[in-house]
Amino acid sequence: MTEHIDINQINSNFRYRFDYLSKFLNFTSNDIAMLNKFAIIILSHIPVIVDTVYRKLLSFDIIKQYFLIRNDSFEDPLTKKIYILKRILTQIEWNDTFLQNLSRIGKIHTNKAGSSSINVDYIHICVLFGFLEHILIDIFYGQLKILIIKINMEYL
Ligand code: HEM
């Protein structure tokens, strides 16, 4: 069966957009609960994650140029990114206020946020998601190895 998805709603209604993405990815309340559990492992690594991401982004001139743009509400970017990563991991209810905040952050990276717009080409966002995924998997793999070593030591 083919479900109709309204592109106008996708572009104008963040709840509708979130519902569509959730259906596509099969992202449910179980995933939110899982993120909240992962937070226990990830939270202490966030400053290092953000630092690693910045080093990567600033190592290419095509990306560095975006960070030379200073918008009206420019604040310490590291603090803001650490804050949003913590929020995503620890948020229990993905209510409209939370979604609207995510949507606002996304919008900043396009040309649709007025004077706050930085208009980042999607290719950079896409590779950054891939890079982040690698960092997170490495952290989990590291934790898993420590756990296995601990279990093995208990049985020695
Ligand atoms: C995984 C994707 C990304 C996430 C989750 C993310 C997150 C954020 C957040 C939370 C902010 C602060 C928004 C605010 O003012 O409240 C921000 C701003 C910004 N982002 Fe991103 N971002 C991403 C990708 C990128 C990429 C790929 C670039 C550059 C090519 C970039 C460049 C910037 C710039 C220049 C700002 C404004 C200054 C700053 O806060 O650093 N972002 N981003």
TrEMBL record:
Gene3D superfamilies: Globins
Every Globin-sensor domain range: 16-141
Pfam families noted in UniProt: Protoglobin
Transmembrane segments: none
InterPro entries: Globin-like_sf, Globin-sensor_dom, Globin/Proto
SUPFAM superfamilies the record matches: Globin-like
Gene Ontology MF annotations: heme binding; oxygen binding
Protein name: Globin-sensor domain-containing protein
Organism: Rotaria sordida
